[in-house]
């Protein structure tokens, strides 16, 4: 006979009141985390126009909190993703467990450059190609 099994104490049965209390605490924590996430998203939106990339990480962390703790927000995010996959794809890449931050940032630089600058002034693609040639 295993000694650890013999020394184990029997578990006490939880009453329905304990289960209710745990459920109330879990819901309260979920609401608090959603509110914190919304505050972080708002803060990221306010910081975004300032120089530096501080707005994006703050927004992504806030979005992670909201999406992990709100079923309605997750459902709306999935609907938005189906409607506008090109807009949501970079956000989804940043929400992964191991986000590809540098690749997402580079992709956004290329997109913004393509939108704003005339084709003859676009430098990012040329820089990337020249760096590739130098590596070889």
Set down the secondary structure blueprint.
Blueprint: H1 3-7, H2 16-47, H3 55-69, H4 71-83, H5 85-94, H6 101-116, H7 124-135
In words, what does this structure look like?
This protein is mainly α. It has a domain at 21-83. Helices cover 76% and strands 0% of the residues. The chain has helices at 3-7, 16-47, 55-69, 71-83, 85-94, 101-116, 124-135.
Q: In terms of structural class, how would the helical and strand content be classed?
A: mainly alpha
User: Based on CA inertia axes, which overall geometry fits?
Assistant: elongated
Count of individual helical segments: 7
How much of the sequence lies in strands comes to under 5%
End-to-end CA span: 66 Å
Helical content class: over 70%
Please compute the radius of gyration using only Cα atoms: 24 Å
Q: Report the mean per-residue pLDDT as an integer.
A: 81
Main β sheet profile? none
Low-confidence stretches: none
The topology string of helices and strands comes to: HHHHHHH
Number of strands: 0
Features:
single chain; 136 residues; mainly alpha
Write a compact overview of the structure shown.
The protein has 136 residues and is mainly alpha-helical.
């Amino acid at each position: 006979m295993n000694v650890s099994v013999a020394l184990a104490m029997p578990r006490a049965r939880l009453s329905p009141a304990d289960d209710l209390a745990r459920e109330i605490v879990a819901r309260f924590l979920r609401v608090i985390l959603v509110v914190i996430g919304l505050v972080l998203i708002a803060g990221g939106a306010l910081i975004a126009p300032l120089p530096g990339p501080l707005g994006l990480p703050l927004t992504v962390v806030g979005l992670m909190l909201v999406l992990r703790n709100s079923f309605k927000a997750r459902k709306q995010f999935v609907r938005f993703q189906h409607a506008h996959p090109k807009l949501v794809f970079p956000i989804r890449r940043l929400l992964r467990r191991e986000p590809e931050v540098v690749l997402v940032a580079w992709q956004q630089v290329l997109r913004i450059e393509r939108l704003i600058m005339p084709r003859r002034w676009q430098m990012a693609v040329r820089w990337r190609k020249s760096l590739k040639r130098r590596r070889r």
